[in-house]
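Need residues for this backbone.
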């Protein structure tokens, strides 16, 4: 398959999906999300593929977030639909996949980029990687499952600190918090991801699929946090602060938030 925004490579039973918008630090625009949906679905349906490694093109970024330029036109309902559609077609699809998916985080993983890595089953990071959920700097909250998956991975206190400060953390800090499984040099990154995935591929595939399903089923019942996130994400798009946050990013200046 050939995609506008992805490179696809096969290495024995491993399918590489490489996000390839290097000039925009691999930011996830709608077209890239549609490509990801198609590429992941194809990998799940291809008997020759045992598992997937997702990474970003170039040396600088895994994915620097959702494409902020596409936010400009969105109102509250548009924002809600963006989050709902993205979660269902890409992020939940990955998390609930019947084949193991490893994120090889090769640089910035911010906003939707960190959310993409967190939807994967295992994360390996290069030592230059920087991670964070900077949405509040745009007058938004994470909308692709970040409030839920970050909390599951690092606990509520650390998740709230990262989300509310919008700070980026280093790969070493991410490893200390349990956000990434391993940190290696950039040169060793793909070899480490392959080593883990090749070990998993020696195990029984149906048991691996069952393990993913059972671990995912362990999240608590009750209020659905993902639904709440979608609603709140949409509401943020109706605020003046959101307009100011996005305008400031695009004009490369600091935002001046009014709380309106
Ligand atoms: N959406 C759209 N475009 C983005 C982007 C995003 N999330 N992240 C980076 N880009 C673009 C920049 O606008 C720039 O485009 P240009 O060359 O046409 O001006 C290009 O990618 C390179 O980014 P730049 O900001 O010049 O690189 P930098 O090294 O100075 O800074 C970052 C790197 C990651 C700190 C910075 O790009 C950034 O803060 N990005 C946004 C992160 C974010 O808020 N993500 C969450 C979105 S919900």
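Answer:
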């Amino acid at each position: 398959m050939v995609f506008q925004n992805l490179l696809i490579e096969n290495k024995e039973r491993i399918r590489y999906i490489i996000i390839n918008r290097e000039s925009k630090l691999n930011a996830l625009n709608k077209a890239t999300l549609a490509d990801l949906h198609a590429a992941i679905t194809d990998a799940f349906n291809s008997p020759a593929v045992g598992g997937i490694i997702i990474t970003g093109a170039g040396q600088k970024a895994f994915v620097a977030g959702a494409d902020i330029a596409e936010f400009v036109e969105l109102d509250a309902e548009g924002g809600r639909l963006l989050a709902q559609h993205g979660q269902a077609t890409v992020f939940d699809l990955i998390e609930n996949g019947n084949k193991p998916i490893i994120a090889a985080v090769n640089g910035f993983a911010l906003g939707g980029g960190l959310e993409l890595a967190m939807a994967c089953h295992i994360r390996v990071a290069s030592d230059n990687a920087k991670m964070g959920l900077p949405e509040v700097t745009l007058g938004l909250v994470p909308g692709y499952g970040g409030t839920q998956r970050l909390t599951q991975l690092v606990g509520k206190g650390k998740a709230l600190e990262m989300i509310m400060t919008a700070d980026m953390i280093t790969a070493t800090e991410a490893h200390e918090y349990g956000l990434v499984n391993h940190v290696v040099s950039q040169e060793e990154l793909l070899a480490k991801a392959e080593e883990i995935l090749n070990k998993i591929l020696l195990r029984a595939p149906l048991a691996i699929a069952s393990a993913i399903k059972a671990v995912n089923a362990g999240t608590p019942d009750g209020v659905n946090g993902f639904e709440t996130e979608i609603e709140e994400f949409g509401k943020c798009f109706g605020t003046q602060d959101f307009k100011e946050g996005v305008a400031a990013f695009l004009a490369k200046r600091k935002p001046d938030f009014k709380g309106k």
